[in-house]
Amino acid sequence: MKKALNIAIKDFLINFRDPMGLVLMLVAPLAMTLVFAAAFGGSEGGSTPSGLSHIPVVLVNQDAGSLGGKVIESFQSDNLRDLLEPQVFTDSNAARLLVDHDQVAAVVIIPPDFTNSILLTKIDNGKSVEPFQESKMSTVEVYSNPTRTISAAIIRSVMDSILNQIYYARYSSEVIITQLMMTGRLLPSEASEMEIQVGNLVSDNNDLSRISIQSELTQNKSNQETGFSWLKYSAPSMAILFLMFTLSTSGRSILAERDHGTLSRLLISPTPRSSILFGKMFSTFLVGLAQMTILILANRFIFGFSWGNPIAVTLVTIAVVAAVSGWGLLPASLSRTSGQAAVMGTAITLVFGGIAGNFIPRMALPVWMQKIGYFTPNSWGIESYYNLIQGASLTDVLPAIFWLFLMAVILVFISGIGFRRQYI
Fold first, then answer.
1. What is the distance between the alpha carbons of residues 96 and 26, in angstroms, rounded to a whole number?
2. Which of 122, 158, 210, 214 has the maximum number of C-beta atoms within 10 A of its C-beta?
3. What is the rounded CA–CA span in Å between residue 68 and residue 111?
């Protein structure tokens, strides 16, 4: 065990004596955190128009029916009050100019035939036209600002939620009427009257004010803090991303030593080969743990925010480093050359960063991608750190700690088998 620890400490010191390595490990993630915070707003989202709260949006209702008004009411509902800042315009061209001049994130334009295109029949003074007549397709336009990608995506998500609820009511009503007619409980001569009732139900009684967007980033379980902070999201996000880069490089140290001839000298020494393997793997963990600890403390003193419960932060950090160490070791254990391991490690790091939310907040990603992200340590780490920063307790992050340690055990086991087949 002593020899293994000596090997681990030796590799640890080598990593921290490399100036360029220190830049990648410590300077780069802090710089990227500062860049994201400066670009998108460092404090709470509501303090800047680019944040993920109080997003400015203009609504233009050209619909002569009642559903257009229902859409406007849903955007102005209490559930979306902290997320959106809607304004109602009548001139669509003037609204588009606000987007072009970067004064709002998007404009939602409801077309004149919106209500008639959705209701089962066209309602006109209490009289319906022919039953089940197909209406012309109507398109709601979302004219978005290309520089506010995330804010525009949120507005589209809100609009999609509203339309989904409207169409759900519409098609459900159509199925009901059709089934009543097929079973003889509704005569064809009574269909028109029923359609009027269904149309009024969809138009007047469909409560769209309950539309809301739920996510880990917009809902604070502890209710201690609201809004989204790019700074507090980017700090753990960038730290984990560059931890992946560092540990994928550190995991290749065995291959590098083999290429340089130092590994062969170690293998013929009296040191047990299992101790050599353990020392190399443990050094990867120590490097990652030191990197994350330094970054957490640096963010704390440079940017001035607390990471939350110290015990919870410590356990999450150990779990994240253990899981990332497993992914850093895996490419090296499966590759025959350091070049192959470098390509595989870089690919894993970039793919994980994309699907886990290192570059874009997780709530802005598609739901299916958010679910896939849980196969990465990045997702668990980002969510755990951000929730702790927002005031979550140790109990709230225990599931993440469990899955991260489980991931680490599985990956280290697989990596150990790969290394033993090559060197032991």
1. 43
2. 158
3. 8
Residue 136 near residue 117 (C-beta atoms within 8 A) = yes
- If one counts every other C-beta atom within 10 angstroms of the C-beta of residue 289, the result is 18
What is the C-alpha to C-alpha distance for residues 42 and 228, in angstroms, rounded to an integer? 10
Q: What are the tokens at 249? A: 């490089």
- pTM for this prediction: 0.56
37-88 pLDDT, tens digit per residue, is: 776 655 444 333 334 568 899 999 998 877 788 888 888 888 788 788 899 9
Residues 117-127: what's their mean pLDDT? Answer: 49
Return the closest-CA partner of residue 104 out of 154, 162, 148. 148
C-alpha 213/C-alpha 80 separation (Å) is: 8
From CA 88, how far away is CA 401, in angstroms rounded? 46
Pick left, alpha or beta for residue 130 (phi over 0 → left; psi -120 to 50 → alpha; otherwise beta).
beta
CA distance 121 to 128: 6
Q: Determine if residue 166 is left, alpha or beta; phi over 0 gives left, psi from -120 to 50 gives alpha, anything else beta.
A: alpha
pLDDT in tens, 146-204: 777 778 888 888 888 888 777 766 666 666 667 777 776 666 666 556 655 655 555 44
- Which of these, 66, 68, 86, lies nearest to 76 by C-alpha position? 86
- pLDDT tens digits, residue range 261-302? 666 666 666 666 666 667 777 888 888 899 999 999 998 888
* Cβ(80)–Cβ(53) below 8 Å: no
Report residue 109: phi and psi, to 5°: -110, 115
